[in-house]
Amino acid sequence: MNMKNIFILGGIYTIISLVSCTKDFDGRAAENSNLVQTSYVRFYSGSLGAVRNFISVDNQRLNGTPLTMGGVFPGASTVTAFTTIAPGSRSISIVDSAVVPAQNPLTFSQNFLAGQYYSIYSYDTANAVKALVVNDVINIPTDTTCNLKFVNIVFSSQPVTPTINVDVFSRSRQANIFSNVAPLGVSAVIPHRTAVTDTLDIRVAGTTTILTSINGFTFNQRRNYTLVFRGRYQATSGTMSRGANIIATY
Predict the structure, then answer these.
(1) Secondary structure E strands in 26-75
(2) Closest CA to 150 of 21, 15, 247, 45
(3) Integer Cα distance of 197 and 10 in angstroms
């Protein structure tokens, strides 16, 4: 092969290499741009006695299976994820899908920031459904703990004095891990021990009176969890009874 051919082949190789590099760079840039233009949401059905709840964003239904009270979209009650939507101001609808709905529809607007995670909790009664939107800041622990926060969306069907504030007591730690959280209160995120089976008691604030418990739960390290207290404060049985869920944020 003479020097002229070597030079021509070398030039072709250089052009192919440059084209390949340019293509790879553009692909990565487009992928990163898409991630920046995404918001993440999930829905917790907490309105009293909910049995056929669907959530829509800008008239696009998100869940294919209706949710009952305590149900989470997407995912099961103990392991859940987020779904993606376009950021910005969005119209959110929560409806009962029956021909004659047992629950009034709720529609509201919410602004979602790109790259942020949000949980939408429905609460209150069938004829007065409301929504609490919480921005979930996800930090991954660097040690063997997990992160835990508490959301109180319990509803009282009659005036109660004092206000129904609650504590969360960890039996493994023999101490309150959340104290005096009011209805619609969202606690700060705390580190919590893992690899130990724990029972969490939700109590009337300042007392040892147990309202409901999460029994025998083992937290995994480097995860983020949310404990939710929901239902009718006065009900201890039936579809509207007070209860709690732990859902994994990450």
Answers:
(1) 39-44, 53-57, 60-61, 72-73
(2) 247
(3) 65
Residue 222 token pair: 């480097």
Phi and psi torsions of 131, nearest 5°: -135, 140
Global pTM? Answer: 0.82
Bridge partners (DSSP) listed for residue 243:
230
Query: Helix (H, G, I), strand (E, B), or coil: what is residue 224?
Result: strand
Using CA atoms, how far apart are residues 231 and 175, in angstroms rounded to an integer? 25
Signed CA dihedral, 197, 203, 209, 214: sign only: negative
Residues contacting 175, CB < 8 A, separation 6+: 169
Per-residue pLDDT of the chain (250 residues), as tens digits, is 544 444 333 443 333 333 333 222 222 223 334 556 899 999 999 999 899 999 999 999 999 999 999 999 997 555 567 999 999 999 999 999 888 888 999 999 999 999 999 999 999 999 999 999 999 999 999 999 999 999 999 998 776 655 689 999 999 999 999 999 999 999 999 999 999 999 999 999 999 999 999 999 999 999 999 999 999 999 999 989 999 999 988 7
CB under 8 Å to 149, separation ≥6 — which residues? 186, 187, 188, 189, 190, 225, 226, 227
